[in-house]
Structures are given as structure tokens and as C-alpha cells.
Amino acid sequence: MSKNIIKQSDQVIAKTYARFPIVFEKGSGCTLWDSNGKAYLDFVAGIAVCNLGHAHPGVAKAISEQAEKLVHVSNLYYTIPQTELATLLTEKSFADRVFFANSGAEANEASIKLARKYYSDKGEKGRHRIITMEKSFHGRTMATLTATGQDKIKQGFSPVLEGFDYVPFNDIEALKSRLDPSVTCAVMLEPVQGEGGIRVPAPDYLKQVRKLCDDTGTLLIFDEIQTGLGRTGKLFAYEHFGIAPDIMTLAKALGNGLPIGAMLAKDHVMEAFGPGSHASTFGGTPLVCAAALEVVKILSQGRVIENGRKAGAYFKEQLMSLKEKYNVIEDVRGIGLLLGLKLKIKGVDIVKSCYEKGFIINCIQDKILRFIPPLVIATEEIDRLVECLDDILGKLE
Ligand SMILES: *Cc1c(COP(=O)(O)O)cnc(C)c1O
What we know:
Blueprint: H1 2-12, E1 24-28, E2 31-34, E3 39-42, H2 45-48, H3 57-69, H4 80-92, E4 97-101, H5 104-121, E5 129-133, H6 142-147, E6 164-167, H7 172-178, E7 184-189, H8 205-216, E8 219-223, E9 247-250, E10 261-265, H9 267-270, H10 286-300, H11 303-325, E11 329-335, E12 338-343, H12 348-356, E13 359-360, E14 362-364, E15 368-371, H13 379-396
Parallel strand pairs: 3-13, 5-6, 5-7, 7-8, 8-9
Antiparallel strand pairs: 1-2, 2-3, 4-10, 9-10, 11-12, 12-15, 14-15
Helix pairs in contact: 3-10, 4-10, 11-13
The site of pyridoxal-5'-phosphate has 15 residues, from helix 5.
């Protein structure tokens, strides 16, 4: 059965992903089952998407009840789920207003447009350049792949967009010398870099970035698409650093698997988006908003995030003990349940051994094993993966 599906899929789907030969059929909590009935513990969670675990009963109920009531109407009208979701997101964050999109890249695209429009409306038309970080990841649309500070993502897509400058992450002096308030409208960054290798900045870096933006009247955009919604042990990663951005983008975990993106901003910034300036047919449609509303309600109760924070601390300790034991491990990094294990060798074979043994993990930047399980993970489940890694690494030495 699964062999046939893989063969058929490889004939009809664009070849943009190097897939592992597994056909997943169902999930529950941190467990996934393939079409042969084999169970796996999931340390990828759809890439930091299913923070509440698979097939969460509350989210499933919210989806099915809303599906029977109203799936979609145009943004020419008002709906209750969209209004309630935006209200909750603004209550729980620095922001006053929300624009809904369908993905992370679209939310970032909206933030790029908003930052430019903000200064255009002020009559500062030359102020349209955006500074982003080397090794950042912001998406795959033309504007967001331009914003992304990784050459491999831009290969073959020239010409990219005008108006982006890049500086090393976690280097305030580099940012200071690059930022020119006569042309720079915004600084855009991930508070903790995800795809670029789980890179946590120095404790005061983001505060210094905030101050530089304040001193120069530059907008600060946080891409919290991966770090947001409990992943780092707080609802939003910026809360760790005692500052807030002017614009923040969310997606991934917001719908626990349903496609939704959001751009949040302070009132005076969002002012620049008036009728006709930006739009999305599906953005904020009632079905996905009902699911996301349930997700944010559950996360706001704090219990799931607290579990994730504790599990992350425990997990990191276990990874540190592996590092003590195995020379092939160069570094353990991350915060909350956004964790990475940097190896001195390529990680793909370890990922393969893991899935053969019933564990789903992934590898970024060739050498970094990434662990981003659902926040509801139990320590006993972490122990099982650590044992498995211990076993695999032991055989390598
Ligand atoms: C995943 C991700 C994106 C892109 O989101 P899509 O929904 O795939 O478009 C953008 N920024 C960050 C930090 C991400 O992790």
C-alpha cells in the first residue's frame, strides 16, 4: 500500500521536497502512525506546527462545529471567530491590531508591505530599505526569499527584490553601522533563529536592537512564526527579552495544523493599512479562526506552555549529557522546546536511523539535529528518544 502511494506521489507531485519513505495516516498527541500501523514518536510536530499534539480533541471539536456552521465568507463582512481571535491575540500581546493571512510567508510579506507603506504615508518615500539577518529564514515568496539571509534559497530566482540589506545576527555593531534612518524603514529578525540553526542571541542583544530602532525611529519586526505560541517556554519569544517589537508575524502553531498566518502591530503602525492597501481572500476565514481561537485559548491557560518549558529544560539537560559522552557532538543549543544538537558530521544518517527505530526528528543546515516536539510531550517520551540517540551515537564511535 505505502509503496504504491510513494510511487504514485513521486510521479504526480512537484519534486520540491526530499521526502522520507513514510506515509503517515493518523496521529494522537506526540505519536504518529504510518500506513503499516508502525508508531513513531514525533519530535518535528509538522515543523513546530502541532504544538498541542496531533488530533487535539478541543481543536477537532472547534473545527467540526465551525465546519457545520460557516466555513467561509469574504472579508467584505464581519465574522465572530475572526473578531474573537484578533481580540484574544491583542489581549495577550503588545499589539493592537491583526491582519490575517494563510501562511508564514504571507504574514511576512504583509509586514514588508506595511513597513514600506508606513514611511511612504509619512512622506519619507526614500525610506524603504529593510535590514534582515544572515542565516535568517522568512519564507519562499519573492519578497520573503529576498528577506531571507541564505543564498541557497535565492539560487535561480534572480532578480530578487530591491531594498534589503543583511547583517550578521547577534552583532549590534554591524547593525548600527548598516542602519541609515534616511533609507532604512525596518529591521526584521527572528528573536531566536530557527531554520538558520537554532541560534539564541546574547541576553541583551534584542534590547540593544530595540533601543537602536527607537533612537532612529525605525520599525522593529519580529518574525515569531517558529518561536511564537509557546515554543520557547513563553507565549511569545520576545517576552524573554523584556522588550516588544512594533510588528510581529505568526503562523505555524497558530492553527495547530490548519493554515493560518497573522501579522500583529501597534495601532499607529497598522494605520498605514487602509481599505484597498492589502487583502487576502482566505485570510482569517471563520473555519481556521475557530481552530486558532481554541489553540490560543488553550495556550493562554498556561498549563501546556509550562509543560513545554519544563520538558525543554529537562530535554536540554539530557542532550548535554550526551554531549559529555560523545565527541561527535559539537554543541547543544536552544530554548524551551526549540532545541538543536550540532554535530561534527552530517546528520541525515542519524535521522534515518531514528525513523527506523520509530522516532521522527529532522536535520537543518546539514549538521544540526532539531527537536521541536509538541509542547505536551512527557519526560518519559523524551527519555525514549535520548536512549535511541545514545544507542545510535554509541555505534558511530
Ligand atoms: C516556517 C517559517 C516561515 C515561513 O512560513 P510558511 O508558512 O512556510 O510560509 C517564515 N519564517 C520563519 C521564522 C519560519 O520558521
